[in-house]
Model the fold of this input.
Amino acid sequence: MLHSNLTVGSNGHLFFNGADTVSLAEKYGTPLYLLDTDRVRERCRLYRETMKEAFTPDSEPLYASKALSVKGVYRICREEGISADVVSCGEIYTAVQAGFPAEKLYFHGNAKTGEDLDYALGQGVGFFVVDNETELRRLNEKAGDRGVRQKILLRLTPGVDPHTFEAVNTGKIDSKFGAAIATGQAESLFVCAQKCPNLSVMGIHCHIGSQIFDVKPFCDAVDMVLTFLNHIKEKYSFVTEIVNLGGGIGIRYREEDPVIDIRETILHIGSFLKRKCCELSYPMPRVLMEPGRSIVADAGLTLYTVQNVKVIPEFKQYVAIDGGMADNPRYALYRSRLTALIADRAGEPPVFQCTVAGRCCESGDLIGEEMFIQTPRIGDRLAVLVTGAYNFSMSSHYNALPTPPIVAVSGGADSILVRRESLEDLTIRQE
Ligand code: LLP
Done:
């Protein structure tokens, strides 16, 4: 099976982290998100331990919580002793509600509002990742009003294209995020930050993209960033404490996707970074990484019920389910290719070619096309794999569909992390 938490039981059902998915669908109803919280923990530990080994002992992962921002996951991160990346007051609030220490939060965003800054300062968020000069000035003023010296990182755009694997791609310089090294804007952001008495520049941040399977673009980014930092050191005698390399390590959604070893990738980036520091005689910084997808993606799967099967002779076969783009918009948005299977007969060969259609009144509401699943029957449970990241967090109420619950599966036992939304919940804020 695609990931080691997926197995087929002796009854032919799909098991997820030791739990029978068909029984869970019966118990909780569908659509249903499952989250293998043991896997989430395992990944936090893998990043935490490997990063200590690859970089410095105080290097650590920050969970990029936009992938799945729920209290249960912040709690796991807190218990596993890792920090988190947040991008809104909502994520800060959810983290704090979960008892996550605000000083271990890193606040991102290219368009933080004055209210965002006030809220985050008020909560005692540890680090702001400052995107631009306007934010820098605003934050400096607000920190001054409160009499605090706020720790910040500066977001740089290294100009690395993770998809074509070219070392430098000018296209990436026009990103909406951060200050480009190549245009000199990164340097002016640094100079401006140094003049802010209420801000303390602790280091820099860069993020080159998501779902990356090759280590080379990460090394290219390290190369660009350290060359820049060395220039800053020589010109301004400023040595950075922190280098945050962002997230982006890929996860397999299908058998055809490349296999990536997270540990090997981090170790490789570590040895590249050490070599580069040595070459430039630059002191080894404390390194942060911000994995989101690779912490939670394969810890999730979604269960649906097959509502009907439509065969259009000589054209297509549709399998229609009781969920779709409202709970998993990734195919509709990005044409992301996913894996689905019939959970009731998971051991049978996937010989039925079909388009899996969602229930929304929109022809683009699909989970995938040209998918191969076991021959479906009405009432079967369809499992869509690897939905832990960017599914619940990007879900919508389109067609007034209530958001499905998230059920945690740990050591074969199940418990509710997020309850199913009710019809009453849908109108609770409406007059
Ligand atoms: N750090 C920053 C600053 C980011 O913008 C992101 C993701 C991450 C870390 C985490 O990256 P990851 O490890 O998850 O690749 N909705 C899209 C993915 C958008 C990613 C946005 N930023 C999807 O469903 O594929």
Notes: The CA atoms of residues 228 and 234 lie 10 Å apart. Residues 64, 67, 85, 108, 207, 210-211, 246-248, 290-294, 330, 389-390 surround LLP (CB under 6 Å).
